[in-house]
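Tokenised fold entry reproduced for absentees:

. . .
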Amino acid sequence: MMDCTDNHYRTLARLISKHAWLYTEMITAETIVHQKDNLDRFLAYSPEQHPIVLQIGGSNLESLAKATELANEYHYDEINFNCGCPSSKVAGHGCFGVRLMLDPMFVGEAMSVIAANTDVPVTVKCRIGVDDHDSYNELCDFIYKVSSLSPTRHFIIHSRKALLNGISPAENRSIPPLKYEYFYGLLRDFPDLRFTINGGITCIGEVNAAIRAGAHGVMVGRAAYNNPWQTLGHVDSTIYGKPSSSLTRRQILGKYQVYGDSVLGKYGQKPNVRDVVKPLLHLFYSEPGNGLWKRKADTAFRHCTTIKSFFEETLRAIPDSVLDSPVGETPVGRDELFADINSLLPPPYEVREQELLYA
């Protein structure tokens, strides 16, 4: 997520969950190429963040090839090509992001170029449609063409279409209706491919419900950012069958403080205290003291120059019982979210070979 899943957030996320796959913000291929002498600022991360996926965007094949080649030095576990971002800064500039869904032949070529310049798996993140190009068959045409023309075998599907005119990126996450039936139709119609569901899934109970319904994987974005403790705190045990971190939030903040103070001002004036603390502002979501903690944070940002001093000034707002308690019970969520999905599936897709040949 742009402006969200930066190095600071991923450091926090990995302290909470040892096994969740982490994604970078989308980074344009042009940025990587133009910043080739300053790449650590954009691509460096700690080894603890594995498994981690680099998400790139772009519409120039030469830049995509060069960016992928430059990123190899950083040993990401996977490279994801963004064909789903509806932001006008992306979709309206250089024609990339979700607009690329209208040109699956180019996406197939781009994925081949990316794959040719890396040894790690390559994946596509997309929506289920764009504007009036929102039928199930059009989505299937996109999946079929991209997978036929490239080594892509894994698609992350945001189960909403994108509306590019008149609404904001935030509204694009809520106004277009979710059509999970399209996602589960893809599982039926493309059994040799892997699909990860995204969009509208808010807690670990709903993640489990999606998997029980057949999803190969689940991507959780805003919920993991807006409520990281409850969302990520259950991933290791519930999804991966591994022991959960036994760290309390006080212990996590102690480790995060060491990290935060070590990176302040690493690139001139950046990052500053506000940058480093930003991912923490949702750590006490719905807990006693959360509102007071945020008000104290607003004041502390004006004068604190270290993460240590920031914590000393603000954490007194949070009760010890919250700071020292383990993660709570697994949230159940909406068990019925996918209960009747098989009865809602669209008619099966029939491959139209001529579209692949002449599109």
